[in-house]
Design a protein that fits this description.
- By secondary structure, the protein is an all-alpha fold.
- It has one domain: Methane Monooxygenase Hydroxylase, Chain G, domain 1, CATH 1.20.58.
- Helices cover 89% and strands 0% of the residues.
- The chain is built from four helices and no strands.
- The longest helix is centred in the C-terminal third of the chain and has 102 residues, at 109-210.
- One of its GO terms (biological process) is vesicle docking.
- One of its GO terms (cellular component) is SNARE complex.
- It is a single-pass type IV membrane protein.
Length: 212
């Protein structure tokens, strides 16, 4: 993207030399970047996390990662569209200046033809950039669908974490109750055993007393 911006700056420099080579480079690089956006968007939409596990919480986390990547790609597409829009605005401004120069130099046929060629080149560039911006708008709209879901996914993750925390607390409480119950039950068994021993001891004492 920085390289394209450099091409834009060179293209906007004043001069009447042949700009067809610069125009071709800009067109090729713009196409490459736009195709990269399309490829990235396509991969994001078809990205599947099914191989990473079926747990609901894992699925939500993976989808949240997907939304984060979509947000980053959307930011890049916005930056690219802004660079193109600024260049398009400057190009249109220069087109108006070239037309005025053409009117002033009508007595010079060669200069007039050169100006017409420049105007035609700029018109082609404007059409290509407008087309590219339109394509970026479609990509941006598609990415928005993934990004919008991010807040919902985060809420769902928070809810699941809260539920997990609640379940853990309930399990700990039940464990304490079970330990308390076991302790109470053990105490009752000890008392019962002590009573039995006292009873046996009492019977032995009475037996010895009456057998004397």
């Amino acid at each position: 993207m920085n390289k394209l911006n450099s091409y834009y700056n060179n293209r906007l420099m004043p001069g009447f030399h042949d700009r067809s080579k610069e125009e071709k480079l800009i067109e090729q690089l713009t196409l490459i970047i736009t195709n990269q956006f399309y490829t990235s968007q396509s991969k994001l939409k078809t990205l599947s996390f099914s191989e990473m596990g079926t747990a609901r919480l894992n699925e939500l986390i993976c989808k949240n990662v997907q939304s984060g990547l979509a947000q980053r790609l959307q930011d890049l597409s916005t930056k690219f569209k802004l660079v193109q829009s600024n260049y398009l605005q400057k190009l249109k401004s220069r087109e108006g200046g070239s037309q005025m120069e053409g009117i002033k130099s009508q007595s010079q046929l060669y200069q007039s033809n050169k100006n017409n060629e420049l105007i035609n080149q700029r018109e082609r560039e404007i059409d290509e950039i407008a087309k590219s911006i339109g394509q970026l708008a479609e990509i941006f709209k598609s990415l928005s669908t993934l990004v919008i879901d991010q807040g919902t996914l985060i809420d769902q993750i928070d809810y699941n974490v809260d539920q997990l925390n609640t379940n853990i607390n309930s399990a700990v409480l039940e464990l304490h109750q079970a330990i308390k119950y076991q302790r109470s039950k053990s105490g009752k068994l000890c008392i019962l055993l002590l009573l039995i021993l006292i009873g046996v001891f009492f019977i032995l004492v009475m037996y010895k007393y009456f057998t004397k």
